[in-house]
Amino acid sequence: MKTLTVFTPTYNNRDKILALYESLNKQKNRDFRWIVIDDGSSDGTEEALKNTVDESKIDFLYVSQPNGGKYRAYKKAVSLNESRYFCCVDADMVLYDDFVDSILLEYKRESDKPELAGIGFPIVCRMFDDMDNIIGGVLSDSVPEYGKLSMLSAKYGYHGEMLYAFTGEFLQKIEIPEFSGEKFLTESAFLFPINDNRIVKWVNKAIAESVYQKNGITNNRLKTELSSSAATLYSYKMGAIHHPMYMHRVANCCLYVAWKKLTKAPDNDSHRIPISVRIP
């Protein structure tokens, strides 16, 4: 069994995922398994991967399932995970050669912290229309070494992308609900419970690069959320319950109420927002 599972969700990203594979193939440390969950691609991704990936060099698992969104792919990958650590690497990322080494070294250093749920590294993100325009990649001096997951942006002001490697033990306990006919649920929604009694570590070292795509979720966020109104409502609810900062719990509660009235989205989830942050 490999120590680290690298999970990649993909949908019609054949060329990008092949570039990701090349960066995985250059890893100095091979103590990882690569799980690809293909979310119903129609661009020849499966054939390209099976013709390219050298399974004598990389422990590789490919799974195809009907198009249902990244969060369903994440749920499937977690159910298949057997490794001690697990990280989600999007198909458009390119990993630095010491990616695996960096993750495993940091966890080795933290073996005495059972409350640690994950370790995060900044990602160098380039804009699709200006590759020299870089967002993130470096944490400021105000970011501490340890903290609550949601405080990185809310309290310490870092708004770049992060790559987290979580413990498999923690991920087996999370709930990833499914919403009929909806394909988008932000990862923060099912990771919010980390804030309750776990911490994460932030390492000021970039270990991957990515490119913001013109047609990606980041650039079409409102349209995407409207197409998954119940899942978005759930995300606001989880923020109202689990965000570590009171004002952000109140803000999420306000968004929950406004979104519910605007979209008429159903709330079939049994979790209850605490009375202390409810808005009439």
User: Helices and strands: which structural class?
Assistant: alpha/beta
Stretches with pLDDT under 50, minimum 5 residues: none
Q: What's the overall geometry?
A: globular
- Gap between N and C termini: 51 Å
Q: Write down the Rg.
A: 19 Å
E-strand count:
12
- Can you give the helix content as a percent range? 25-40%
Q: Which strands sit side by side, in order, in the main sheet? A: 3-2-1-4-10-6-11-9
Number of helices: 11
Q: Can you describe this structure?
A:
The protein has 280 residues and is α/β, with parallel strands linked by helices. The chain has helices at 14-25, 45-52, 70-80, 99-109, 151-154, 168-171, 187-191, 194-197, 221-227, 229-242, 246-263, and strands spanning 4-10, 32-38, 59-64, 85-88, 94-95, 116-122, 124-127, 130-135, 146-147, 162-167, 199-202, 208-212. Helices cover 35% and strands 21% of the residues.
Q: How is the topology of this model organized?
A:
Elements: E1 4-10, H1 14-25, E2 32-38, H2 45-52, E3 59-64, H3 70-80, E4 85-88, E5 94-95, H4 99-109, E6 116-122, E7 124-127, E8 130-135, E9 146-147, H5 151-154, E10 162-167, H6 168-171, H7 187-191, H8 194-197, E11 199-202, E12 208-212, H9 221-227, H10 229-242, H11 246-263
Parallel strand pairs: 1-2, 1-4, 2-3, 6-11, 7-12
Antiparallel strand pairs: 4-10, 5-12, 6-10, 7-8, 9-11
Helix pairs in contact: 1-2, 10-11
